[in-house]
Each structure stands twice: as structure tokens, then as C-alpha cells.
Amino acid sequence: MTKYLQFFLALGWSVAGVAAVQDLRQLEQQAKLFIAAEDGNSSFQYLPGRADPRLRLPACVQLPTAGWPAGQRAPFGAVELACANQGWRVLIPVTASEVSMGYATTRPLRAGDVLQLSDVKLVRITNRALLAQSVRDPAFIVGKAVRSAVPADSLLRENQLRLPIVVKMNQPVRVVVLGNGFSLGSDAIALGNAAVGERLNVRVSSGKVISGVVAEDLTIQISAP
Questions:
Q1: Pair 119, 138: CB distance under 8 Å
Q2: For a designed S-S bond to 13, which of 8, 88, 160, 210 qualifies (C-beta 3.0 to 4.6 A apart)?
Q3: CB 1 within 8 Å of CB 69
Q4: 151-162 residue pLDDT tens
């Protein structure tokens, strides 16, 4: 803030004789409106401060534009107000406090729906009990399926998500027995639903039920003893 103030003073913008002086309360109001519009977009909450009362700026013909200072990352320490027609920029200080965020659904979800980023939104979590169960990493969401129906605007919990089902009940599958330097294949029928990496019971042509792990190529792999 000091370097901005010194610059303005050097230009003589503090002289009382300036005809039209920028209303500092308008700058503060613009900063408040900007912060309100940004609320919920990050894990920080901001409380705007006051403009330096020593500032004497030429009045901006249009409303000054507000934004976060370029080149800075959250948490921010100020909102930048700029007036294009007068060529000045000024910082309104803000106080940042970290808040807990989680992901909620943007639409109703059906059991088995596979999630994309467009299906969720960041929301603030105020309930500490929900915080421990909520999903706060988008990498844990994308590509996962919901176990049961979830209404829109519902906070997602980790126990509601699973890997998507890739093999379904009664689906024909290929069983591969892997041994030391050899592999044997056989056709079978799935006896349940499973995702990649999960164990699944299958019935082979002899009628015997065996168990293996679903591989990425959708074969059921069994390691030979």
C-alpha cells in the first residue's frame, strides 16, 4: 500500500485543490461487492478493510474495477481497484481466514452414475461432524460412481463413492490363471458385480465356482498356487 501512496503523492494527487476527488467509500463498497461475489470460490474467507484516508485520487468517471492483485496467490492480502480513465490503481486491505470446503452435487445422481467435475461444486462446510466424512479432493471424485441415489446440492461423503462397476451379474467373462511362465484361459459367468481390482466369484463351464480379481482388461485373474 505504501508504494502506491507515495506514487500518488508524488503526482500531487493529495493537493486539496483537486476539483473532483474519488470517494474512498465507493472504493470500499466495490471491494466488498467483489469479495461477496468471490465468496465460496476458494477455501478462504475475506473481510475487507478501509482505504487509506490520506489518499486523494482523481475521481473515476466510471466505477473502478476490482480484482485480486496480479501475480499473487491465495490467501490474498488486498483487493485491487483500478480506474482506466484516470490511470490509477489502489489496494484495499483484506483479512483472510481459512474455511473448510467440500464438494456437493450439482444435479440429482442415480445409483451407478460416474462422476465428472461438472457434477460437483465447492461448498463451505460449517458442521464439524460432516467435515470428517466429506470429500475435499476432486481427484477422489472424478471417475468414481455413487453407490446409491444422491439428491442435488448434497454434500458428498467418501462412503457414497466407489469405483465404477465394469463386470455385472451373469456377464460372460474370461478367466485367466497366471502361473510361473504360463497362463491358462477359460470362459465363465460372473456371479456378481465388481469393479477393477475387486474380487469376483465366477462359474466356469464345469459348474465349479472360483474366485479371482477383475483386471483392467476385464479378465478375471487367478494366481496359480
A1: no
A2: 8
A3: no
A4: 999 999 989 999
